[in-house]
Amino acid sequence: MNPTLMQTDAERSLAIFPAGSNGEFNLPSALSMVIARGSGCDLWDTDGKHYVDFSMGWGSALVGHGRREIAEAVAQQAPKGANFAYITEASLALAEEIVRISPASERLRFCASGTEATMYSLRLARAFTGRSRVIKFEGAYHGANDVGVTSLFPQRLPDFPTPEPSSDGIDHLVRDHVLIAPYNDLETTQRIITTYADEVAAVIVEPLHRCLPPVSGFLQGLREITAAHGVLLIFDEVVTGFRLAYGGAQEYYGVVPDLVAYGKALGGGYPIGAYGGQFEIMDLVREDRLGRETYVWTASTLGGNPVSTAAAGAALSVFRQPGAYEHLHEIGAYLREGMRQTLQARGIPGQIIGDGPLAQVVFTREEEPVLDYRSTRRGDAETSRAVMLGLFGRGIFLNPMGTKLYLSLAHDKAACDTFLDRFDDTLAKVFSTA
Ligand SMILES: Cc1ncc(COP(=O)(O)O)c(C=O)c1O
Description:
By secondary structure, this protein is α/β, with parallel strands linked by helices.
């Protein structure tokens, strides 16, 4: 008999995909699985096992899996053509709606992922200012591009602003061009900006850094310092866009950057990225500038394809439905409070961070505020991974490496209660053996 016929789907997956995943799901083989289908916030694997999903496609399926409006929009568009690499009705209407709600975006282009959107934003910033360095915050992720994986998980914690690559294989020049600042520390960030002002093209920030909210005045302060030094401010809204509010972090925190990058929730689960900015910055991409002083190459074969943009248009109409953001914030607060109470009832030191439909547990003592990468890192990573894997084994689908929990419009209090029951059960097991 052919041995592959005797393998489980999980074994076949482990045999062909490194770590049995497309990234970030380095599960032990006993937990490895292959997904068959999803509906709302439920998933089933190919063995029929049920999971409640707290990853939601790393936050891309904010509308919930299999949402009717999205499925219908895709079904209508698919027979009319999958891609023309040109503007279509769907992408035009979508761009008009994004520009309407995104004050930073006077002009916009689509691409196919968040990684591309931040990469083009950084390139535009360098070209527009004629400067080569960029500042990012330690621990921030801006996609799998070279900047995104610099000081993403630094281990040696060099003095600021020295970067540390978190991946091999990236261009060594990144060491000279990326400066690292501590999130939520305006004073140190200001010092770095003023020291390198003439060389810095942009500060790129996740307005909500991983799962950490900005302290009062931090984003406003960044806006003022960058403007004072001719440094562009880039909001990476790949996570916050359409999630914290319909108008994303710009609306939620009331700060307008120079450039903004979108992805994830925008596409309703379909591949999309977008980047927008002021007219004079975005205009650098016009092909008729080629050969003139400043011209920026951006092009994405699948960017703005009609199926993804039809899905995105439908996703935005779902987000505009009355009560959508009230629901996302209510269930997020419910989950975070429930997690806090579960830790407290068991006397386990830890903090629950997040905002809107996002939550994360950091196993660190209550009196130490968690404000940035270094304070998050003081949390016990081994315990955190044991808890994440324990939850996974109990039918909570999540990204055990990322530890950030994503809720969606399909989650309700019952789904959160299921999580909280299993969280409690997992804590009992992990802390009894600790
Ligand atoms: C803040 C942020 N920016 C960019 C990205 C990259 O997006 P993508 O995976 O679509 O390339 C991510 C992905 O997790 C992200 O969290």
